[in-house]
Amino acid sequence: MRLSILITAGVLCCAITANADYDYIIEEGYSGGLTLDDHETLLMTGGGLHELTLFNWSQATIEGTSPLSEFDGGIWRLGIGGYSYMDFSGGEVHEFGVISDATATLSGGSIDEIWSYQSAWTYAGDPPELVPDPHIEIVCLDWDWSDITNILTGTWADFSTFDIQLVDRVGYDPAIENIAFTIVPEPASLLLIAAGGLLLRRRS
After folding, report:
1. Closest by CA position to 39, among listed 87, 101, 97, 83
2. pTM for the whole thing?
3. Among 66, 83, 112, 180, which lies 20 to 30 A Cα-Cα from 98?
4. For residues 51 and 33, is the Cβ–Cβ distance under 8 A?
5. pLDDT for 96-147, tens place per residue?
6. C-beta of residue 77 within 8 angstroms of C-beta of residue 109
7. Cβ distance 42 to 60 under 8 Å?
8. Segments of 63-135 assigned E as strands
9. Nearest to 85 by CA among 61, 108, 119, 63
C-alpha cells in the first residue's frame, strides 16, 4: 500500500510516496526540504528539494531531479552525515557536503560544488601507518584537477562531463584527498578486451 505524504514550501509542494522498498520516493514536484534519519531510505528520480539531509544510517539513491534552480528545481543543498550513504547517478545539485563517517558514490549528473568535514586518512597495519581513507567515490571515464582553482573536471561513463568546484574546510583534509576515483573502460575498450579473451581461448 502506497502512503502519500505532502510537504509544502510556500505555494510549492512535492509528492513524496513510500512503498515496501523505500521509505520515500520522489518523482516530481518541489519541496522545501526532507530529512532522513535512523535507517530511512529515499529513491529520487525527479522533482526537487531545496534541502536534503541524511543522518545516522539513512540511505538515498538519487537517479534524477528536475533542472536546478533555487526554490524551483533540483537539489540546492545536499548534506550527509553520521554513517549515512548516498548513491548519486543523475540529477542536478548545487552544494553537496559530507561530514562525520558518511560516504557517497557519484557516477553521473551535475554537482556545482563539494565540501567535506572529514579526515581522508586513517591508521592501519602493524606497525600502524597512515593510509588513504576517502569517503567519496567517483566512478568515471577520466578526470583532472587543478590545484590552482581547486576545480575537478572529467567524464562520466555516459560521456557527459562534470565540472565541480571543490571547497576545502579549515582543520580538515583537502576535498580532493577525500575522493577515490574508479576508472571504468569505454565500451570500445571493453569490446577489445572481450575480443582478446576470445582469441586466447581459441588458441588454448
Report:
1. 83
2. 0.84
3. 66
4. yes
5. 999 999 999 999 999 999 999 999 999 998 999 999 999 999 999 999 999 9
6. no
7. yes
8. 75-80, 85-88, 92-99, 103-106, 110-117, 121-124, 129-132
9. 61
